[in-house]
Each structure stands twice: as structure tokens, then as C-alpha cells.
Amino acid sequence: MPKEKGTDIPINGVDQDDVKQEEENCASAENADELSLSEEELTALCREHVCPECDVMQKAEQERLRALADTENVKKRLLREAEEMKRYAGDSILGDLLPVLDNLDLALAHADHADEACKNFVMGVDMTRKIFLDTLKNHGLESVEAVPGTEFNPEFHEAVGMASEDDLDDNAVAQIVQAGYVLKGRLLRPAKVMVNKKS
């Protein structure tokens, strides 16, 4: 069968139309393979070949940086909480020891009426109290300033009653009922005081 003018001429006995047809068949087969990829496979291919300026890449980078920042914030918070736990670990034990200190103070307050025979005993109680208080101070315990005449401070004082002293100002501490204590800057127990109100 003669070829028409302008058509491809067989080269080495291979018809060029057949070659083109074969290439088209291969291309359509590749397209069919691409279309049969799952959504996950397509997303993975996209991530491999995406350019840095692409919105998908920028969004993924932002999410990665946000996750890193969140992780860093959690780490810092856990370190801060661990430090705080170490710093105030003894507050419950020291809080439980405060009544012992209160009882020693109470014993010394009533020692004024003791006779000569008890003076050595009172001196022993006073020395015990000082050693005990020094030991607690070594662990960060300090007494709240509550002296008669100082102004009442609700952050460190707890009012348990009213007094009427003419020589003191209104809202001044008139009497200390129970000493208060601070542990490393944090209030462990407020000082219980009587507050002055002039009539």
C-alpha cells in the first residue's frame, strides 16, 4: 500500500505511526498509574517535590516551629515547677513544727512568775528555743514582723480582735496573740494580732 505524500516514511522497517501510537499508550498508562495513587501517596509526593515558596511548605514550617516553641514552653514550665517544689518542699514539715515553737514561747512568757528554783529550767527552755529557731532559720524560716505599734498589714497579719490603747494609732498592732512566719519569702502562717481602734 503506497504512502500518501507528507506522511511518515518507515525507518529501518519500523512505521513511525506505530512508534507514536506506542508512546501515547505508555503516557496514558503512566497517567492512569498517577491517578490510581492514594491521597496519602499523593501528599507524600507533593511534600517531596514542593518548592520552599509554596503555601503548603510555609504552613508545614510554621506548624513545626509552633510545635518546637510549645515543647520549649512545657520544658521551662516543668523546670520552674520542679524548682519551686524543691524550694518549698519543707513547708509542710516546718508548718507542723511551728506549734512546738509556740509552746516554747508560751512557756517563756509565763516564766516571769517562776521562783529562783526554776530559773535554770527557764534558762534551758530559752536556750532550746533559740537553737530550735536558729535551725529553722537555716531552712529559710523567718518571723513576720509584728511589734506593738506597727501598722496592721493584712498580707502578713491576721486580726483576731480589737483593742483600745490610747497611746497607739488606729489600725496599729496592739498585741501579738501568735507569731507569724515566712518561708523563703512566702507566707507560711500569718501573725495573729489584736488591732487598735480608739473609742
Automatic annotation (TrEMBL):
<dbReference type="InterPro" id="IPR000740">
    <property type="entry name" value="GrpE"/>
</dbReference>
<dbReference type="GO" id="GO:0006457">
    <property type="term" value="P:protein folding"/>
</dbReference>
<dbReference type="GO" id="GO:0000774">
    <property type="term" value="F:adenyl-nucleotide exchange factor activity"/>
</dbReference>
<keyword id="KW-0143">Chaperone</keyword>
<keyword id="KW-0963">Cytoplasm</keyword>
<dbReference type="Pfam" id="PF01025">
    <property type="entry name" value="GrpE"/>
</dbReference>
<dbReference type="GO" id="GO:0051082">
    <property type="term" value="F:unfolded protein binding"/>
</dbReference>
<feature type="coiled-coil region">
    <location>
        <begin position="57"/>
        <end position="88"/>
    </location>
</feature>
<dbReference type="GO" id="GO:0042803">
    <property type="term" value="F:protein homodimerization activity"/>
</dbReference>
<comment type="function">
    <text>Participates actively in the response to hyperosmotic and heat shock by preventing the aggregation of stress-denatured proteins, in association with DnaK and GrpE. It is the nucleotide exchange factor for DnaK and may function as a thermosensor. Unfolded proteins bind initially to DnaJ; upon interaction with the DnaJ-bound protein, DnaK hydrolyzes its bound ATP, resulting in the formation of a stable complex. GrpE releases ADP from DnaK; ATP binding to DnaK triggers the release of the substrate protein, thus completing the reaction cycle.</text>
</comment>
<dbReference type="GO" id="GO:0005829">
    <property type="term" value="C:cytosol"/>
</dbReference>
<feature type="region of interest" description="Disordered">
    <location>
        <begin position="1"/>
        <end position="34"/>
    </location>
</feature>
<dbReference type="InterPro" id="IPR013805">
    <property type="entry name" value="GrpE_CC"/>
</dbReference>
<protein>
    <recommendedName>
        <fullName>Protein GrpE</fullName>
    </recommendedName>
</protein>
<keyword id="KW-0175">Coiled coil</keyword>
<dbReference type="InterPro" id="IPR009012">
    <property type="entry name" value="GrpE_head"/>
</dbReference>
<dbReference type="GO" id="GO:0051087">
    <property type="term" value="F:protein-folding chaperone binding"/>
</dbReference>
<comment type="similarity">
    <text>Belongs to the GrpE family.</text>
</comment>
<comment type="subunit">
    <text>Homodimer.</text>
</comment>
<keyword id="KW-0346">Stress response</keyword>
<feature type="compositionally biased region" description="Acidic residues">
    <location>
        <begin position="24"/>
        <end position="34"/>
    </location>
</feature>
